[in-house]
Automatic annotation (TrEMBL):
Species this chain originates from: Chryseobacterium gotjawalense
Annotated SUPFAM superfamilies: Globin-like
Taxon lineage: Bacteria, Pseudomonadati, Bacteroidota, Flavobacteriia, Flavobacteriales
The keyword Phosphoprotein belongs to this UniProt entry's keyword annotation: no
Keywords: Heme, Iron, Metal-binding, Transport
A Pfam cross-reference name: Bac_globin
Protein name, per record: Group III truncated hemoglobin
InterPro entries in UniProt: Globin-like_sf, Globin/Proto, Hemoglobin_trunc
Length: 127
C-alpha cells in the first residue's frame, strides 16, 4: 500500500477522514450542528496541522486545544466521542496508507485525542 509522504497524501487522508466524520452518527453533529463548521476553512487548517505534526513543515500556527473548549461547554465532549474519533482516524489511515509515517499519524492522533479528552473532562468538572 501507499506510503504517507507528501502534502497531497495528507490532503487526501484528511478529506477522506472528514467525509466519514461529516456523515457520522456519533460525532458528526459536533461539526455540522454545534460548531457549524465552514469546511472550506477547516480542511486547509487540518492539512497544515498534520503537515506540521508529521513533516515538521511549520505551516500550522494555532492552538488546537483551545477551539474545543467552547464546543465542550455547549455539548460535553466525552471519552467515547474521542474513542470514536480515534477509530475513524485509524480506519481512514489504514485503508489508504502504510509504513512508518502512517503509524506515526495514528500514534500522534491517539496521544492528542487522549490528552484532549482529559482536558475536556477537567474543564467540565471545574466549571
Ligand atoms: C470527538 C472529537 C473531536 C471533535 C468533535 C472535534 C471537533 C472540532 C470542531 C467542531 C472544530 C472546528 C472549530 C471551529 O472552527 O469552529 C475542530 C477544530 C480542530 N480540531 Fe477537533 N475535534 C475532535 C478531536 C480532535 C483531535 C483528536 C484533534 C487532533 C488530533 C483535533 C484537532 C483539531 C484542530 C487542529 C482544529 C483546528 C484548530 C484551529 O482552528 O486552529 N480535533 N475540532
Amino acid at each position: 500500500m501507499k506510503k504517507l509522504e507528501t502534502r497531497q497524501d495528507i490532503e487526501d487522508l484528511v478529506n477522506r477522514f472528514y467525509d466519514k466524520v461529516q456523515s457520522d452518527e456519533t460525532i458528526g453533529f459536533f461539526f455540522n450542528d454545534v460548531a457549524k463548521v465552514d469546511w472550506s476553512h477547516h480542511l486547509p487548517k487540518m492539512y497544515s496541522f498534520w503537515e506540521t505534526l508529521l513533516f515538521g513543515q511549520i505551516s500550522y500556527k494555532g492552538n488546537p486545544m483551545a477551539v474545543h473548549f467552547p464546543i465542550n461547554a455547549e455539548v460535553p465532549m466525552e471519552k467515547f466521542h474521542f474513542e470514536h474519533w480515534i477509530m475513524l482516524w485509524t480506519a481512514t489511515v489504514e485503508e489508504n496508507f502504510s509504513g512508518e509515517m502512517a503509524e506515526l499519524a495514528v500514534y500522534k492522533a491517539k496521544n492528542i485525542a487522549n490528552l484532549m479528552a482529559h482536558k475536556m473532562e477537567v474543564a467540565r468538572k471545574t466549571r
